[in-house]
Specification:
This protein is of the alpha/beta class. 38% of the residues lie in helices and 22% in strands. A hairpin with a 4-residue loop joins strand 15 (385-394) and strand 16 (399-408). Helix 5 (123-136) runs parallel beside helix 6 (157-170) and helix 10 (261-274) packs parallel to helix 13 (436-454). It binds 6-O-phosphono-beta-D-glucopyranose (BG6).
Length: 485
Amino acid sequence: QNVTGMTIVLFGATGDLAKRKLYPALYNLYIENKMPETFSVIGLGRTPYTDDVFQTKVEQSLRNYSRGPVHDKGLQQFLTSFRYCTFDATETDSYKKLNGLIEQRENELSLPQNRLFYLSVAPSLIDVITSNLTTSGVSQTTGWKRLIVEKPFGSDLASARELNEKLRTAFHEDEIYRIDHYLGKPMVQNLETLILVNPVLDSLFNHQLIANVQITASETVGVESRAPYYDKAGAIRDMVQNHMLQLVMMTALHLPRKAQPEEIRTKKVEIMKALRPIQGETLQDNLIRAQYVEGDVFGIDVPAYREEPGVPQSSMNDTYIAARLFIDNEFWNGIPFYLRTGKRLDKKSTRIVFEFKERPAEIDDYTPEGLAPNLLILEISPNESISLQVNMKNPSTDRFEPSTITFTSNSNNQPEAYEVLLHDAMLGNATFFANWKEVELSWQWIQPLLEAFKENELPLVTYSAGSTGPREARQLLAADHFKWW
Ligand code: BG6
């Protein structure tokens, strides 16, 4: 399927995301012939730049962040598609100027009026931008119009609903693409087909066999320069409400055959509805909330969260969350899902581990020492792989030991999540974007936790930077006779 000619209007063109992810993504799509023959990109930002300066900045971003080499051939042509418009989101005149520029480029390039608006701006501006897009006529097109919105999508259930209503005054649900870059990671996109095309893996997806599912997103970085945002968001809003719950939905999908996008969405919503709430008395037993103290990451001393620039000394913000979840549907009934995510941990890794039940000893009374559970490990990033942990006898000791076979993809230059998702949005494929119902149900699930955190109903425990997380998170699994993998 080919992408049709279009204009990409990028709000936040001088920001970090554009620089690190979006320009390299567009460039890689371009060199892989996934962009339309003619397209126009209009970057918007408050800082005044000429087109030339803007194009040089885009080029620098490609040179610094592109996943593959930047070729001289075609580069100039790619860059000449970029124009810059100095823009104040609250000024009506800015929208007039923008409209003029979009139309001018559409005429020059004979482009249809297909417009993709990408909002990579502070949440407080989303509302004003979308309403101005409508009143100024910028979003009135004779072609298609689509809106990509970055997270955070609200800061709680009420604000997410409010934001959604505002977006809906300017765009239909099927024109709104709520981006969650975890859904663009190739392993996540391929989860469903991976199981389908491998009957061996499919047969492991059996209620009788799975003991638990563990989803980990661990990071080594700290709060970086994002304290003003992160200290309000915490791991719960920054990672759990979106990325982690999306991973739960994608893991639990278990579709019996290749499904249509609509079925995937319906099924994800069903999973969210079946996700047992954690609230009231169940909170203490099922959720761990923690903050890092000083420690060392890869041999470098790093400060405690409360000592990080911009973080108040008294901050009660969570930088780590672990939780025990249950999906009350026929398939997952009684199988715990354990989630954990945190900053300043010992390694950068996002993975899903299926732990299988142990072999019942009573079968034949054969219980050799050293046996470990079988595991199916899907490593999502930084390196994609599938591993299987099995028990093997070590001929020199004559004892069983767990041994892991790992399969990695042959391609070491995989598309980046943003590339995949931008391409999907250009094609009008919203399968791997979060639809409103999923987002609303996620916030609904998170809301009691936010309230409990606010009232300090759950202790905020600590962990050392560079460690695997707090002791309490290990106890969460130990209580069920499991451990984290
Ligand atoms: C972002 C969060 O959405 O995801 C960041 O705001 C986090 O805090 C990042 O670092 C993690 O993404 P990835 O792709 O590096 O796992």
